[in-house]
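F.,

This is the one I mentioned.
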């Protein structure tokens, strides 16, 4: 179930509105920020907007810079990213700029919407997703069928709200513009509803003329099952920790994080930490917790490399330590190669005992990076 990396991009007024209620589009960004957005567009495989934004703004959604288009072509990409829109109704204007500018277009819709869109002569690859439109199926289709690895979402609020609330956003790029809209009927960026997780992680702030760009990473959800975006977030952290291991010619560099079901980080560890030449990442992280901690039973262990199934340096391999701790879920990036032990099937040991093991292969290269000299 791999999905593209989902980057939400929006500009808002100081009072949190996306637009005003006049028919003309409200310009919130500054010229330099529009150029930054152009650069982000040039860096992605696809750009998505909701049907509401096509109706309200009639945007073209292009990469405007000829140099950026040329650079895409030189890299073997089409000059323009794929343009994607979503509509439940299929009630779209066939003359809108969206369909007649740039490169390939895809419309994700319902079965009924597809009929309507075809009848209206919409010039796009029309993809019906069944009686209702589900974001996970849409992202899966974009990834598997259309090869989209990075998706930029440019609104509107309805689309942004759903992706954030469903835990499917990997990054939020929010521009704050120094003006007020002051009209309660104007569209807001984020609507009401249940947002998972607590505070977002602030990755960057940047002043661009008179606007400020904020880059956030949504963090783990506050309740309920860990979402795809949360899994990615924690596994990325485990891969980051792997980079911090003291180098070794005889053992892997691995990072691990233990996260409670409510998204709280319980402990982290990495190989050979704190001067212990043989300690493994999962072992180091587990050692920081009280074995009787009840949160372990519903926690997830994120490890850049699958937990080991056999080892000579300690009596119990990490897979055994995880089972003994009562953990029922493991997410990892990389299956252990036969470098040091043969049939290093930690996943087999864990799944045989009923543990759910998820491998997110998209992080494999990052997990391998500090181990290049070994494999
Ligand atoms: N400041 C900014 O950065 C920015 C960026 C973009 C847009 N905007 C503003 O945002 C406003 C438009 O926002 P919006 O929230 O009205 O529209 P939107 O998010 O662009 O589109 C909403 C539409 O998308 C379709 N849709 C979304 N989720 C769906 C689902 N789960 N199932 C089926 N269909 C789904 C529906 O289309 P159907 O109605 O066809 O079924 C829905 O009406 C405009 O005023 C625009 O100017 C501002
Ligand atoms: Zn181990």
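My design for it:
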């Amino acid at each position: 179930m791999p999905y593209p990396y989902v980057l939400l991009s929006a500009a808002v007024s100081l009072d949190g509105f996306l637009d005003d209620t006049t028919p003309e589009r409200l310009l919130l960004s500054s010229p330099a920020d529009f150029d930054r957005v152009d650069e982000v567009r040039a860096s992605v495989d696809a750009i998505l907007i909701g049907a509401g934004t096509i109706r309200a703004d009639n945007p073209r959604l292009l990469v405007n810079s000829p140099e950026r288009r040329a650079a895409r072509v030189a890299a073997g990409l089409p000059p323009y990213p794929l343009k994607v829109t979503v509509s439940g109704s299929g009630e779209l204007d066939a003359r809108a700029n969206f369909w007649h500018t740039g490169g390939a277009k895809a419309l994700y819709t319902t079965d009924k919407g597809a009929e309507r869109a075809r009848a209206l002569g919409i010039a796009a690859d029309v993809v019906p997703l069944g009686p209702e439109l589900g974001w996970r199926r849409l992202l899966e289709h974009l990834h598997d069928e259309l090869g989209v690895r990075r998706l930029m979402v440019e609104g509107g609020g309805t689309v942004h709200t759903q992706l954030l609330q469903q835990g499917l956003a990997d990054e939020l790029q929010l521009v704050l513009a120094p003006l007020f809209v002051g009209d309660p009927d104007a569209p807001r960026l984020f609507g009401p509803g249940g947002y998972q997780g607590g505070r977002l992680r602030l990755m960057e702030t940047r002043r661009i003329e008179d606007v400020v760009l904020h880059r956030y990473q949504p963090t783990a959800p506050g309740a309920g099952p860990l979402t795809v975006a949360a899994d990615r977030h924690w596994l990325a952290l485990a891969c980051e920790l792997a980079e911090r291991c003291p180098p070794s010619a005889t053992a892997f560099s691995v990072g691990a994080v233990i996260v409670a079901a409510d998204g709280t980080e319980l402990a982290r560890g990495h190989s050979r930490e704190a001067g212990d030449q043989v300690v493994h990442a999962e072992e180091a992280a587990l050692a920081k917790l009280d074995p009787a901690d009840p949160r372990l039973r519903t926690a997830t262990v994120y490890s850049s490399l699958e937990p080991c199934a056999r080892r000579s340096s300690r009596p119990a391999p990490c897979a055994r330590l995880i089972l003994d701790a009562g953990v029922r879920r493991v997410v990892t990036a990389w299956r252990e190669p036969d470098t040091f032990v043969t049939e290093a099937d930690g996943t087999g040991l864990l799944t045989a005992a009923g543990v759910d093991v998820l491998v997110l292969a998209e992080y494999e290269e990052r997990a391998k990076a500090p181990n290049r000299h070994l494999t």
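Residues 228-242 form the longest helix (15 residues).

Talk soon.
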